[in-house]
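Cross-check.
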Amino acid sequence: ETLSDWAKCVPYAKIENLYGPTEATIFCLRYEWERGALPHPQGKGIVPIGRPMEGMDAFKLNENSLDEEGELCLTGEQVTPGYWNNPSKTTEAFGTTKDGKKYYRTGDLCKIDQAGDFLYLGRIDNQVKIDGHRVELEEIEFHTRAFCGDKQVIAAVNTSDAGSHFILLFIESETDLREGLREHLKKRLPGYMIPKEIITVSLFPLNSNGKTDRKALTKQY
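Predicted model, tokenized:
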């Protein structure tokens, strides 16, 4: 929805979504966005990241079907041999396929649609367990954004003194948007995914990379 609104400002521009981590030399998957395209029904409101560029390949770990979610892995000419002077981190993040090709584990959760395009669904490390149930925090954020409009939202997990996990939902806003939001989420999410607390913050803290600092945001709660 954000892209559709922004595209009106550049009516003659070709718009592409380029995906890739530093370990695969920045861009390695590509998707050309069509004007007027509806949000992908499986993409949680996010534009697909498309297909591998020339010289690259991508696959999901533990792939059994197109519908199954899995970790996105990359192989090809652009993948780095490893991390400089850090063999343990290299072993953790890189592997070798059955046919001897080196691959990089991105840590990104994805699936492949019927057209063969990859859909980015969030980070593997944002998958948590609440009361024995697997929870994807991006799912909570998606439904929250649908209610709050263009506000920045962050769902995070905190741990009580007794060791139990609970969900916190942060909204970057000057006004209190909690009224109605909890009921909105209850209609769309199972009970174990409903945040224990909904907190409005005037401005999210940023880390050195200019991204929202989740740890700093949740540290005080």
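The helical segments are 2-7, 87-93, 137-148, 181-186, 214-218. The chain has a mean pLDDT of 88. Passed to J.P. for a second look.
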